[in-house]
Amino acid sequence: MKKQNLVVVGGGSTYTIGMIMSLVAEKEQFPLKSITFYDTNAERQEKIAKASEIILREKYPELENFSYTTNKEEALTDADFVFVQIRTGGLAMREQDEQIPLRHGAVGQETCGPGGMAYGLRSIGDMIDLVNDIRHFSPNAWILNYTNPAAIVAEALRREFPDDKKLLNICDMPAAIMVSYAGILGKDVFDLVPEYFGLNHFGWFTSILDKDGVDHTDTIKRAITEDGFIPEDAEIANDPSWIKTFKQVEQMVTDFPEYLPNTYLQYYLYPSQMVEKEEPDNTRARQVINGREKRVHSLADQIIADDTTENVELEVDIHGRYMIRVAASMAYNNGDIFIVMVENNGTIANLPDDAMVEVPSVITNRGPKPFSVGYISTFYKGLIEGQLAYEKLVVDAYYENSYEKALQALTLNRTVIDAPRARKILDDMIDANKNYWPELHASKQALN
Ligand code: G6P
Ligand code: MN
Question: Which amino acids bring their CB within 6 angstroms of ligand 1?
Fold first, then answer.
């Protein structure tokens, strides 16, 4: 097996150590020659990189080279794979994305509704620059992108790089949900075969099979409604917020038992409940700052101080394993099946060809080949079309510098609905994002 040169963009991310552990666990499936971290924040990256260096020295001695840099040429030259996980504006801006809508009684969430729009308008420019940089230094590298809000980022990259066949947007949420299904069934997550359709953070499992073709969907539905549903992946299993989110799946399956929902649908189907349970001074960003970020940084500090991993517990998570298995399927033409984002082109028969949809696909050295979904019924089609229009309008607003498109996007999002509320949220977000967003202007036809 050819050994790969891997670049991790966003080396300072709180997910990176989990990714390193996953690379160690998956070294037989995805053997590496080198790992390079790239980040724009030298200090944040250094701590994670120094800890990673020790982990790799102990657990991946066959790796020929590990390095980290803030220099793009150094980082991006000669890459075979580039894993991208960047957060423009950091957790500080995530907190704004969550708090501003809540002030106006709307859902405050990283990727859903107004928060998703704000984050999208910040991420698009950086992602376009990054893909251009990667293509300049490594024209043939596979780019696997986790950057959020993935639906909006994927739509912008589709428009910007229509002919780039080696750029793939993925999300670990369907896989993280499948880890819990696997727990219910007593199976390994990679032995389950999903049937699924939707947009990113907006989809449904229509069935869960195993590799022998046995259908386990009803068993899973019954278990969820009778025994409840809990996160089981190491990264989220003990997190109170994720425990609440998985619990909400019970409600969704009770109300809408036809399919198994992505957890993110809670924000669109129960927006009032979601607003009620939020504490504006302790939204998810704050919880992550005080939780995962502190935990990962003190873990890194300890590894560095001890110069060994002997005194710490390190876990493998689905976030890392999922991306690595997708990469392995590309590198070695495995033909495994993963839920990824692709341009629709008839996959979901009654949605537009130019929608970025999230569906199971066979992954080979030629990229993803989606399985046909066919026609979807009215409830799902209606929900998806509204959400898709919002996503497209956000990207239109970016390219056209259009205030009006942004207002339209928010007004038609299920988490907002009310035009005056949409306007208030938008105006506050413009203020909060002046260092990040393109300038938005009212259209020429606007009435005075
Ligand atoms: C899942 C989603 C990601 C999202 C993350 C947020 O993994 O797929 O898109 O960024 O959850 O998790 P957090 O713990 O930061 O709220
Ligand atoms: Mn996601």
Answer: 110, 148, 171-173, 176, 284, 288
For residue 384, the model assigns a pLDDT of 98
pTM: 0.97
Which atom belonging to ligand 1 lies closest to the Cα atom of 235? Answer: 14
- Helix (H) / strand (E) element for 359: namely strand 356-364
Q: Are 146 and 172 spatial neighbours (Cβ–Cβ below 8 Å)?
A: yes
Q: Can you tell me the mean pLDDT for 431-436?
A: 98
Residue 15 exposure: Cα atoms within 13 Å on the Cβ side? 20
- Determine the Cα–Cα distance for residues 249 and 111; give it in Å rounded to an integer: 18
Residue 335 dihedral angles phi and psi, to the nearest 5°: 70, 30
**Helix H or strand E segment including 147:** none
CA-nearest residue, atom 15 of ligand 1 = 288
Side-chain half-sphere of 38: how many Cα atoms within 13 Å?
22
Taking CA atoms only, the protein residue closest to ligand 1 atom 14 is 288
Q: Which two tokens stand for residue 108?
A: 């405050």
Q: Read off the pLDDT of residues 147-164 as tens digits, 9 standing for 90 and up.
A: 999 999 999 999 999 999
What distance in Å separates the CA atoms of residue 85 and residue 29, rounded to the nearest whole number?
22
Rounded CA separation 252/265 (Å) = 8
- Per-residue pLDDT tens over the stretch 78-106: 999 999 999 999 999 999 999 999 999 99
Cα angle 436-441-445, degrees, rounded to a multiple of 5: 160
Q: At residue 278, what is the residue type?
A: E
Give the position of tokens 């997550």: 189
Mutate to test the pocket of ligand 1, among 111, 145, 196, 290 (most ligand atoms within 8 A of CB): 111
Query: In terms of C-beta distances under 8 Å and separation of at least 24 residues, what long-range contacts does 299-302 make, across chains too?
Result: 299/17, 299/51, 300/17, 300/47, 300/48, 300/50, 300/51, 301/47, 301/51
Atom nearest to 172 CA in ligand 1:
8
Angle at 161 between CA 10 and CA 348, to 5 degrees: 100
